[in-house]
Structures are given as structure tokens and as C-alpha cells.
Amino acid sequence: MDGNRSRAVALYPEVLSGNGKVGAVVVGGDYQGLGIVRSLGRRGIPVCVVDDEHSISRFSKYSTKFVKLADLKDEAATVAALLDIGNRLSLHGWILYPTRDELVAAFSRLARS
Question: Which residues, in sequence order, are CB contacts of 3 under 8 Å at separation 6+?
Fold first, then answer.
């Protein structure tokens, strides 16, 4: 286990999934999302892609899970859906990677409230 990960695990043990790995949730699976999926996946980090389109990232060999939502444009519905996905798939503590400006805005508004 590398030093940074072991320090993170010691400080935040709740970020571990059932298999003992910290993962990433990439919201939006177009080419920006694909770059994130490949970069993290090559390092052995499990990646869940969430998108409302038929995205290229879902077909990456590094994508371990894929969830298709009806719409990512409604902020409240998107946040509620992501919380539900996190609970259903045991993604507690996984890092969120939004790939669209409107998603970044929605998540930052949620963080401030």
C-alpha cells in the first residue's frame, strides 16, 4: 500500500468500499469522462460511470460499473439519483468527478447548503 493511500485510509477509514478500495464516480461519460476513467483505472481504482447519454466511457475496460440516468439536467433529481446510486452500490466515500459545467455548479450549490 503506498504511503498516501495508507495515510488517507488511516484518517478516513469510511472511504473504503466493500472490497477495500477507494473508488471514483465519474458523472458524464463523454470524452472528458473517458480520460478520467482511463487515468484512474490504470492505477487500479474502481470507477463507476453515471450518465444520461449513450456514453463512450461505459465501454472502457476500466469502467467497473455503469448507471444510466434519464436526465442529468435537473439539479435536484441528479443529486438525489447520485445519493441513491451511492447507497445501492455501496459507493460510500467514493470521489465524485463531474465532467460538465452544469454538474460542477449543481454539486457546488449542494455543498454550500
Answer: none
> Along the chain (113 residues), what's the average pLDDT of each consecutive run of 10 residues?
43 49 92 95 96 93 95 91 94 94 87 67
Query: What is this structure's pTM?
Result: 0.80
**Helix, strand, or coil (residue 29):** coil
Distance, in Å, from the CA atom of 101 to the CA atom of 113, rounded to the nearest integer, reads: 19
* Sheet of strand 47-51: strand arrangement: 65-68, 47-51, 24-27, 95-98
For residue 12, is it within any domain? Answer: no
- Quick check: 32 and 57 in contact, CB under 8 A? no
CATH number at residue 85: 3.40.50
